[in-house]
Design goal:
By secondary structure, the chain is of the alpha/beta class. The chain is about 30% helix and about 20% strand. It has 2 domains: about 180 residues, Nitrogenase molybdenum iron protein domain (Rossmann fold, 3-Layer(aba) Sandwich); about 130 residues, 3-Layer(aba) Sandwich (Rossmann fold).
Length: about 325
């Protein structure tokens, strides 16, 4: 993970905790029910996990799974979040009130802390929480564990997580309806703002040392979401990384951020921090007002979209789309 200091590292953890590649594989009966001895098999980046249908004690890492389970009415035993990047009071503004103890921290999970919750299932849809196979294996000794499903991805698509959760908890129809509802909102927004079609964007973060950490991949969760609103990742930014990893841009190369739309969040200092970067005020999106500033409490809503954060982001983005 890219880092300069502890604050930057934590910010990039939240920044990297984001979105998605198609579920590698998941099979289950069409109509699930607990207590029947049925199991669901999920293929993922570290192998395969077999989960008993409808587990009762679920420990969650990150918002993708949290929001999926809340949407389906599934109780959460414990929810591990990144301190300082999980919303006011460690609850995101778009997520409804729900059960579950919130555990705020940083870095890989403390296995003993997880074990104290006696989980039947552990899920993490963002790579920052289960960064390697060793972490996954330690957690798997406690309970069936589902990490990010595709190797090399920073996180799972919220749609795939909804599908998987629906199968595990026997709520496939409810999951499908939720997906259709949110995708309908995306289609409606795209139709409402046709001038956004084909316009370029850059999404990233400003670190305390005034470097820009930017998305460079068309498969990134944030890129996928913005593309559903008609925008496209700026080719100038896309070419910064051969591997498609999120990467740093120095303030001396602020000219690379000449996209039609800019979506950024500063780790410190608020939006005023950007004005201290030479050349920022002359960028096309800044001059035209097509710049959206997020913050540490809500940037994850775009970086790691969920069934609840997508509608929130659509509403947040509409004033910018209206100016294109």
């Amino acid at each position: 993970m890219l880092a300069v200091n502890r604050r930057s590292r934590l910010g990039l953890c939240a920044f990297v905790a984001a979105v998605f590649v198609v579920l590698a594989g998941c099979s289950a009966p069409d109509d699930g029910d607990s207590g029947s001895g049925e199991t669901i098999t999920v293929d993922h980046q570290y192998g395969t996990t077999t989960v008993p249908a409808n587990p009762k004690r679920v420990v969650v890492f990150g918002g993708i799974w949290t929001d999926s389970l809340v949407k389906l009415g599934v109780p959460i035993t414990a929810e591990f979040v990144t301190a300082g990047y999980a919303g006011p009071g460690n609850r995101f503004e778009w997520t409804p009130e729900h059960s579950g103890e919130v555990v705020a921290g940083s870095g890989p999970p403390d296995v003993a802390q997880v074990a104290a919750f006696k989980p039947d299932l552990i899920v993490a849809g963002e790579v920052g929480y289960l960064p390697d196979q060793s972490t996954y294996e330690r957690l798997s000794r406690l309970a069936p564990t589902i990490p990010v499903t595709t190797k090399g991805a920073v996180g799972d698509r919220w749609q795939d997580t909804m599908v998987t959760a629906g199968k595990i908890f026997g709520k496939q129809e409810q999951a499908a309806a939720a997906i259709a509802d949110v995708e309908g909102k995306l289609s409606a927004a795209r139709a409402e703002y046709p001038n956004a079609a084909g316009k370029t964007f850059t999404f990233g973060q400003l670190s305390p040392d005034q470097r820009f950490a930017v998305v460079t991949s068309e498969n990134d969760p944030a890129t996928r979401l913005l593309a559903q609103l008609g925008l496209r990742l700026d080719p100038a930014v896309m070419g910064l990384s051969d591997s498609g990893q999120r990467t740093f841009v120095s303030q001396e190369r602020v000219d690379l951020l000449s996209s039609d739309v800019l979506v950024f969040w500063p780790l410190v200092g608020g939006p005023a921090a950007f004005s201290r970067v030479p050349g920022w005020d002359q960028l096309p999106a800044v001059r035209s007002g097509t710049t959206l500033f997020l913050n540490n409490d809500n940037a994850t809503g775009l970086g790691s979209p969920t069934v609840y954060s997508v509608p929130w982001f659509i509403d947040t983005m509409k004033p910018v789309l209206a100016k294109i």
